[in-house]
UniProtKB/TrEMBL annotation:
<feature type="transmembrane region" description="Helical">
    <location>
        <begin position="7"/>
        <end position="27"/>
    </location>
</feature>
<keyword id="KW-0472">Membrane</keyword>
<keyword id="KW-0812">Transmembrane</keyword>
<dbReference type="InterPro" id="IPR004031">
    <property type="entry name" value="PMP22/EMP/MP20/Claudin"/>
</dbReference>
<dbReference type="Pfam" id="PF00822">
    <property type="entry name" value="PMP22_Claudin"/>
</dbReference>
<feature type="transmembrane region" description="Helical">
    <location>
        <begin position="78"/>
        <end position="102"/>
    </location>
</feature>
<protein>
    <submittedName>
        <fullName>Uncharacterized protein LOC106078866 isoform X2</fullName>
    </submittedName>
</protein>
<dbReference type="GO" id="GO:0005886">
    <property type="term" value="C:plasma membrane"/>
</dbReference>
<keyword id="KW-1133">Transmembrane helix</keyword>
<feature type="transmembrane region" description="Helical">
    <location>
        <begin position="114"/>
        <end position="141"/>
    </location>
</feature>
<feature type="transmembrane region" description="Helical">
    <location>
        <begin position="153"/>
        <end position="177"/>
    </location>
</feature>
<dbReference type="InterPro" id="IPR050579">
    <property type="entry name" value="PMP-22/EMP/MP20-like"/>
</dbReference>
Length: 178
């Protein structure tokens, strides 16, 4: 059984990319490993340290960032805010793509405007991810000299960045589908 007349494989690929990208970004946003590494504590035991956008973990124990530091920098706040804005743009793009499929099933007229908005939302998601990761990398990682403390960029930041790229590509692919 094939796809309905107004569906194309390219639309499906775009939607799948939007979903995968959004999932990756949300996982990156929620996990506390934007910077991570190991340190030796006062007893000589190696402890894993992870910094996220909202949590700081020392080994298995995690605390809210506000519990760890009372002076959270503006760059850290900006990184968190733009990561959330990127998620919202990704949700909008995926939601509108699903809405497009529903309208196609209901035989409603197809509009280029809807596809254009999906593409713009995908590009906006990528732009917000770039700003978020730049704020964290330049304003947080460098300011706190995390590299000198033996901390590396963590998987959460990378997941968020790759997710933003996938959202953008999904939005553009969806728009370019005929």
């Amino acid at each position: 059984m094939g796809l309905p007349v107004r569906f194309s494989v390219v639309h499906c690929v775009g939607t799948v990319l939007l979903g995968i990208g959004l999932t990756m970004h949300i996982v990156g946003l929620a996990t506390p490993s934007w910077a991570s590494g190991t340190r030796t504590d006062s007893r000589g035991v190696s402890v894993t340290i992870m910094f996220g956008l909202w949590k700081v973990c020392f080994g298995p124990e995690c605390k809210d960032l506000s519990d760890y530091s009372t002076n959270i920098t503006d760059a850290w706040k900006a990184a968190s805010a733009f990561a959330i804005l990127s998620m919202v743009a990704g949700i909008a793009a995926l939601g509108l793509a699903c809405y497009h499929f529903i309208m196609s099933v209901l035989a409603k007229p197809e509009t280029k405007t809807l596809k254009f908005i999906i593409m713009v939302a995908g590009i906006l998601a990528l732009l917000c991810v770039v700003i978020s990761t730049s704020c964290f990398g330049g304003g947080v990682y460098q300011k706190y000299e995390m590299d000198k403390d033996g901390l590396d960029i963590g998987y959460s930041l990378i997941l968020s960045a790759v997710g933003g790229i996938a959202i953008c590509i999904g939005g553009v692919v969806f728009f370019l589908a005929s």
